[in-house]
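Box 3.1 A note on notation
Throughout this textbook, protein chains are presented in two layers. The first layer is the amino acid sequence; the second is a token string describing backbone geometry. Keep the layers aligned when reading.
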Amino acid sequence: MIPAEQVQALEVEYALFNACRTLSSPAPSAMKVCALHGVVLLVDRSRPASTYANRVLGLDDESFEAFDEMLDRYDKSEGAAPRIDLRLEHCTPDLKDGLHRAGFEQTESLCYLGHDVCDIANPADGVDIRRWHTDDADAFLDLLESAGGEEIPAEVRSAKREYYCTDRFRKFVAYVKGSPVAWATLFVTDDGKHGYLANAYTDPRHRGRGLQRELLLARLHDSAELGLETVVTDVEPGTTSLRNCRRVGFQIESVHLLWERRTSKHD
């Protein structure tokens, strides 16, 4: 098992990186991290409506006594309402009742999974998976643009391309008949010891071919070559993504119940 504190620290480091690379604005990151009564707060006043950029991590019965003080750290004038990432073991009846009274409700849940990087199988022969590098950053932004259906403004590209297809934020792309149809990422921590797997996407016309499983194996194999100790990812319960992760050796480290105000919006 990977300690919960280590998983949370990795999640915070990855969230800070995501705040730098976000394509919602060309502006530099405004995300701040603060600790209050043993709880970690992610606060991004530049994106007050984003429940990913504004989160409360590690809340429990004891720290809930300071919940109002925590909420005061968010810009209420802009309608900010943080997401509460509540670990399942902390979700007591008293805490749930307190969150309900504060105007929050559970909206979804996430499974955090971990993998000790050793004895990783290679991707299957015949599956064309390539790691893209710095020179491919604009091409990768083109892929994101085509998948999302929205143009990425030139000023955003100019400000953010440096964060893509790097040694720290590694892009893996699967090809079918010479065309890129699926991709996923590996984020490497500053200390070079841990990784975070995320951003898995497959063109709907090519789903069901096992491409994401092979992208998982490609990233795990890369993690082993880099000498990483552990990798972490998060998936929704009961999904194909969870099944794929379990099949390649991931273990569930924790389950988080996500609480939001009804008026909150995702980034």
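The chain has two domains: 4-111+255-261, 118-228. The mean pLDDT is 92.
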